[in-house]
Specification:
single chain; alpha/beta; 8-stranded mixed beta sheet; 22 strands
Length: 542
């Protein structure tokens, strides 16, 4: 039994992972306390800039997708492409259109396209939502210094405020969302496994008045510059004069580095620049050997560190937060069985491993190909298509067009997914094949009047009853068993008349009944209500 005198959930760390976990818990009416050392969000370290379509869909569930779009300095309408060039003032080599799921038109594969927004902007939107939520208490300027598991199963945290005074918080569950240097990871005896990238990098935030008007190419999300003397990425942080750059192969430990000279090489001349901040780093490819001890869980960067190529790191963190939060909420409310919490690591650790592997392959390609590429200043070489450059650019496709990685992951091997004997589509980082195979993300469908199917799903489980010409199956036994377990199930009936394009739901989903989880993954599908009745126990973790 859980100790009802303790706070339900303590979240250590109030970055994107911690704030997302708090919002998901609040969606399920579970209170949490978020402890975050930073009082202010540092806008000089933009960090992640890609909010992919899956994360935007979560933001839609929390009512925040439009708010983030309004807060983002660069709209999707303004830029969708990634441009490879010699320098910003040089010539274009190639471009990848509609990278990172940036679509001006309404996508079919998800209710939301991607959105470019610096991480501080995302954090401020999430902070604002948390501060408005009655179920969340956000404590800024405080840090957790120690954790101790008590005999009754609760966890006691020592919390130190800005003045150095310490207090204790007892919680039923603790989520370690405290990043790569996680004290929570250390407290449960978990260790990172993996390696660091092959090349050091230097991030530079700078102002360059008038530079945008001089760039020869149409608006881009960012520019991959392959300049003589410098190689890296440059992008606009806003529509004014603030830019960011990542210069590859620069090791500040080996000598004096001149950021302005590096920027001039990327730009292509000695344009006036003002360096605001620099941040040296090396890409990490690290995965925790375990995600849990008893009631303490690792989430996001505390559990894995991803290379930034593809922008998957922060988005993977949000996926972790949603997964563990709804399962803890189910347990707190009494309907989640022990297998539900056990399934967190079984479902999310392979997703992180796959993401790290894909981004790591791009890191290797950068080191092996881009370091030997020679791009002239006069114009494109005639044999570009046959050069090492073309090979390297082909490798980059999965960085920008990664819908298979973003939407195509599945939890088919999870103990709380009921297999129907079918195999999910082969996992491919680029191509996404929608499938209602149990464990996969529910295929997205637009309904009449422009509604998304996802918008009509309930907050907990949803039973989709797919009816066309045949009589609707008797679902009363399913709902009766769910009521016995105290599992809240929303029932939605769908027919061809409900879909915008008139397609039969049975043809789309491959069965007449689907049980969909709170995170929009298919938990079970089939045609026999008696089988569904038994499946309710499994998907609830019993």
């Amino acid at each position: 039994m859980t100790d009802t005198t303790a706070d339900p959930v303590l979240i250590v760390g109030g970055g994107p992972s911690g704030l997302a976990a708090a919002l998901e818990l609040a969606r399920h009416r579970v209170r949490s306390i978020v402890i975050e050392p930073r009082v202010e969000v540092d806008t000089t370290r933009p960090r992640a800039k890609t909010t992919n379509a899956r994360t935007m869909t979560h933001l839609r569930r929390w009512g925040l997708a439009d708010e983030l779009r309004a807060a983002a300095p660069l709209s999707v309408e303004w830029a969708q492409d990634i441009v490879f060039c010699s320098t910003l003032l040089g010539y274009e080599i190639t471009r990848f259109a509609n990278g990172f799921q940036l679509e001006v038109d309404r996508p079919e594969w998800a209710p939301e396209p991607g959105q470019q927004a610096p991480q501080p902007v995302v954090e401020l939107v999430l902070r604002g939502a948390v501060e408005r939520d009655q179920y969340v208490q956000l404590r800024l300027g405080a840090r957790v210094t120690a954790l101790d598991e008590l005999p009754d199963g609760t966890v006691r945290a020592i919390v130190e405020d800005e003045a150095g005074a310490s207090t204790t918080i007892d919680a039923q569950y603790v989520l370690g969302c405290d990043g790569g240097g996680s004290i929570v990871r250390e407290s449960i005896g978990a260790q990172f496994e993996g390696s660091s990238g092959e090349r050091p990098n230097l991030s530079i935030l700078f102002r360059a008045p008038g530079l945008a008007e001089r760039v020869r190419f149409a608006n881009a999300v960012h520019y991959w510059v392959m300049a003589p003397g410098a190689a890296g990425i440059v992008g606009r942080l806003d529509r004014a004069d603030t830019w960011w750059a990542i210069v590859q192969g620069v090791d500040v430990r080996t000598g004096i580095v001149d950021p302005e000279a590096l920027l001039h090489a990327l730009i292509g001349d000695r344009a006036p620049v003002e360096v605001i901040a620099t941040d040296p780093w090396v890409a990490r490819k690290l995965l925790s050997d375990k995600y849990r001890r008893d009631r303490i869980f690792l989430v996001g960067d505390a559990a894995h560190l991803n290379p930034p190529w593809g922008g998957h790191g922060y988005n993977t963190c949000i996926g972790d937060a949603v997964n563990i939060a709804w399962k803890i909420a189910a347990t707190v409310h009494g309907w989640g069985g022990p297998a539900l919490l056990d399934s967190y690591a079984a479902e999310r650790r392979p997703v992180a491993a796959r993401t790290i592997a894909d981004a790591g392959a791009q890191e290797t390609a950068l080191a092996h190909h881009f370091s030997t590429v020679e791009i002239g200043e006069a114009g494109p070489p005639a044999d570009l298509a046959r050069s090492r450059t073309a090979t390297a650019l082909a490798v980059k496709k999965s960085e920008f067009h990664s819908l298979g990685l973003v939407l195509g992951y599945h939890y088919g091997n999870s103990a709380v997914i009921v297999s129907d004997g079918s195999a999910p589509p082969p996992q491919d980082p680029i191509e996404y094949v929608p499938s209602a195979c149990p464990g996969a993300l529910l295929p997205h469908v637009w309904l009449r009047e422009g509604r998304s199917l996802y918008d009509v799903l309930g907050p907990e489980f949803t039973l989709l009853v797919l009816v066309d010409d045949a009589p609707a199956p008797d679902i009363a036994p399913i709902l009766a068993r769910a009521e016995e377990l105290r599992v809240r199930v929303t029932v939605r009936s769908l027919s061809a008349a409900d879909t915008e394009d008139g397609r039969s739901p049975h043809e789309i989903f491959g069965a007449r009944l689907l049980l969909v989880r709170p995170d929009q993954h298919v938990a079970w599908r089939g045609n026999d209500p008696a089988v569904a009745e038994k499946a309710v126990d499994v998907v609830a973790g019993w």
